[in-house]
Structure formats: structure tokens, C-alpha cells
Amino acid sequence: MNSSKYIIVKQIEWAKNQNINLIGSQGARGRKIYTTSIEENLFQPLNQQTREELIEGDGSELNGRTNHPAKIQALNSSSALGINIFDYWRNFSDISIIVSACGLTRSDNQITGKIQFEQKFSIDDRFQYAPNLDVVIYPDNPKTIKAYGVECKFTEPYSSRGHGGLDEKYLENQEIWQKLSNTKSLAQKISPIDSESIYLHTAQLIKHILGLNRKFGRGAFRLLYLWYDVLGEPGYRHNQEIERFSEVVRLDGIKFHSITYQELIINLAKHRAGHEMYIRYLTDRYL
Question: How would DSSP label each residue in 123-138?
């Protein structure tokens, strides 16, 4: 069984344990991996602001219609997984627990701030679209780091669909690559076709770095790659690709970090007191 199928089977069994009925991508047709409502796939009802941000994003996550469930209703939706982790913390002004659990700060640091979804940071004003970053955490009183960006992955790295390279248009603007010579060298290797990585969507991460760098400046942001680990060679090779990418961009002073969902949930579970239902949901479903 391949890695993507393994994750999906686990999610289907979770849904059965919760007595959640599943439908296909076209209702009665297609593999039954969609919940019948958005709410059934989430720990809690969407925060209204989160809902608005998803609507404004380019992923069309909430656009379902009769016999065609929304993307976010898929059990293997990376958007649903990210929301199940982060949306809960929009109810708190103190976000120290989630930020430190992600490995972004020390556990004894107290942080207040806000969490937003599907944030866009323009790379070049000539481009029609800016990449959507899944989650951005903004501390209220930033000292050095003004924003923590989070790119969330679930089954995507293990999909047979693969991923594209970097469009050559990004290499035409020399200004966006200032002081990013190592990152640019990597970008040239994967443009227009990425033959370097099988599991890691390197081009997407580079675009996020360019957008964050333009908005906040080098050294004033941290980018987190949050991914779901699997057993065997796919998980091992995915991790190797992440490490190679990290080594390159860190040479340019980019604060890049990665953590698995499993590690993150284990870190969060240390704070079960006061967050019992949230922790139980995450551990039951994703560990």
C-alpha cells in the first residue's frame, strides 16, 4: 500500500469510528472519502474570520455544490488538517502553546498575537497571482520575527500527481533575489522542471520565501514546513529532501524550519489540561 493510500485508509477508519457517513467526489460516485458536511471534517465550526479568509483564498476550499462536496470535506484535506490544528487557537490571545509546539519559539516564551489563513504576499507586482500561504502567525510585539508562515502538507507529497518546477518568469526579476544567491541557484536548477525533488514541492517553498522576504525583509520572518510523516522509504526520502532544502536557504540567512504533524501533536499533548477535547480529537485522528 502506498503512503497516500495508507493515510486515507486510516482517515476512513477514523470516520467509521465516529459514525460519520462518507460520500464520493460526485456524491454517490467516486471514492467515498468526503464527509457530508464541512463541520463533520473539523474539530469545531469554522471561526467566521477563518471562513472569510478561506473564501478570499485561491484554493476554492469551501466551494461545494449539489453532489459535489467542497475540497475541505475530503478526509485527506491538508486545509482541514491545518484548520483542525490552528483554528482552535483563534479563541485565545495567548498563543504561546501552539507557537512553541511548532518549535518556533522556546516553551517559556509568552506570545500574544493573531493567526490568519490563506495569506498572500506578492512577489512581483507584474504577476497576477501571489502564492497563498496556509497559515501566518503575527506576534503582537515582534522583536525580530514579524511573522511565522506555515506551509501545511498532508498526502500531497506522496501523491502520484507530482509537482511542477519554478516558472522561468521568477528568474527574470533580479531584484527579488538580492542576498539570496544560494536560493536562486537552487531555483535555476528546478526551472522550469524540478528533477531534484520527488516529495518536496521546492518551487512552492521558494515562492513563499520570496513573498515573505519582500513583505518583511530577510531575517524578519520564519517559514515552517509542516508535514505528515509516513513509514518506510517515502517518509525517509521526504525528510532528506527537506533537509537539503533547509541547508541551501539557511546559507542565505533564511529562517526555515520543519516539523511533522506527529511531533507537533505530541508537543501539544503535553498541554492536555485545559484543552482536553482538542487534544483527544487530534491524537485520535492523526496519531
Answer: S-TTSS--PEEEEEEE
Q: Which residue has the cell 536562486?
A: 184
Cell numbers for 174, please give them. 533580479
Residue showing cell 506522496: 158
**Per-residue pLDDT band at 27 (split at 50, 70, 90):** low
Per-residue pLDDT for 268 more than 70? Answer: yes
Cis peptide leading into residue 142 (ω within 30°): no
User: What mean pLDDT is predicted for residues 177-188?
Assistant: 96
Q: Can you tell me the distance from the alpha carbon of 45 to that of 38, in angstroms, rounded to the nearest whole number?
A: 8
The whole-model pTM stands at 0.94
Of all residues in the chain, what percent carry a pLDDT higher than 90? 82
Q: Give the number of other CB atoms < 10 A from CB of residue 269.
A: 16
Q: Is 276 exposed, middle or buried (0-12, 13-18, 19+ CB in 10 A)?
A: exposed
Whether the Cβ atoms of residue 148 and residue 221 lie closer than 8 Å to each other:
yes
**Which residues, including other chains, have CB under 8 Å from residue 92's CB and lie 6 or more apart?**
none
Ordered alpha helix ranges (H), the chain: 3-17, 48-56, 78-86, 96-101, 181-189, 202-216, 233-250, 261-269, 276-286
Q: How far apart are CA 5 and CA 153, in angstroms?
A: 15
CA 103, CA 227: separation in Å to the nearest integer?
13
**Do residues 97 and 268 touch, judged by C-beta distance below 8 A?**
yes
Q: Domain residues of the chain, as ranges?
A: 78-286
Q: What is the SS3 string spanning 205-225?
A: HHHHHHHHHHHHCCCCEEEEE
